[in-house]
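Ops channel
N.P.: pipeline sanity check, posting one input/output pair.
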């Protein structure tokens, strides 16, 4: 029988023994940012070396124009309860009528909610012009974050259902929108309600509001 002997150089053996174990990457500061619900805004995120969550908003672009807009945000953070998170919002350099302008200086606070119904304001900070950061502590394993308390299409439909059965309310067309959809007004005796939608033709930036005035 033929036997083979393999000689391993001592230097190579020592290198293999002394090689440091691969470093375990740090755990991400949060589990997920969910944008798969009504009125949520499209975005993507990444983590800075110091653990800051960089929230990159997606611009909406106007057709045949250099204009673009971002600034609406509404998302849900999923992270362990009690975790402190620092978020920084990116892509706030809008273009209006061909002129650049950041909306960072307008974002003085965000609002947060556990259930999407009751909202609480949280002040932001601006370490330098054009930057917006906010620090949050997770009160539960999920937390909604928005620039302003959202008014969803479902909220509007629910409001219409509430008043349409009233004999004191009626509906009439007052104008047409850009897409030729009816702009309606519903009012009661001695009061009127007006609802409107801003940027309804833009994805992720539109919002609705109902104003009720009692005379």
């Amino acid at each position: 029988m033929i036997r083979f002997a393999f000689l391993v150089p001592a230097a190579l053996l020592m290198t293999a023994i002394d090689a440091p174990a691969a470093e375990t990457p740090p755990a991400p500061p949060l589990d997920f940012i969910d944008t798969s619900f009504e009125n949520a805004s499209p975005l993507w995120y990444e983590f800075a070396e110091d653990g800051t969550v960089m929230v990159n908003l997606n611009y909406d672009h106007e057709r045949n124009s250099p204009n673009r807009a971002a600034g609406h945000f509404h998302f849900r953070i999923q992270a362990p309860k009690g975790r402190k998170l620092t978020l920084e919002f990116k892509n706030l350099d809008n273009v209006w009528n061909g002129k650049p302008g950041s909306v960072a200086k307008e974002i003085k606070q965000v609002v947060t909610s556990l259930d999407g119904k009751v909202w609480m304001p949280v002040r932001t900070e601006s370490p330098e012009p054009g930057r917006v950061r906010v620090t949050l502590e997770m009160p539960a394993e999920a937390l909604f974050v928005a620039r302003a308390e959202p008014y969803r299409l479902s909220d509007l439909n629910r409001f219409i259902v509430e008043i349409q059965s009233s004999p004191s309310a009626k509906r009439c067309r007052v104008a047409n929108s850009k897409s030729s959809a009816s702009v309606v007004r519903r009012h009661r005796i001695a009061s009127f309600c007006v609802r409107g939608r801003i940027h309804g033709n833009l994805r992720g930036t539109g919002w609705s509001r109902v104003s009720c005035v009692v005379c």
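N.P.: looks fine end to end. The first helix runs from residue 10 to 18.
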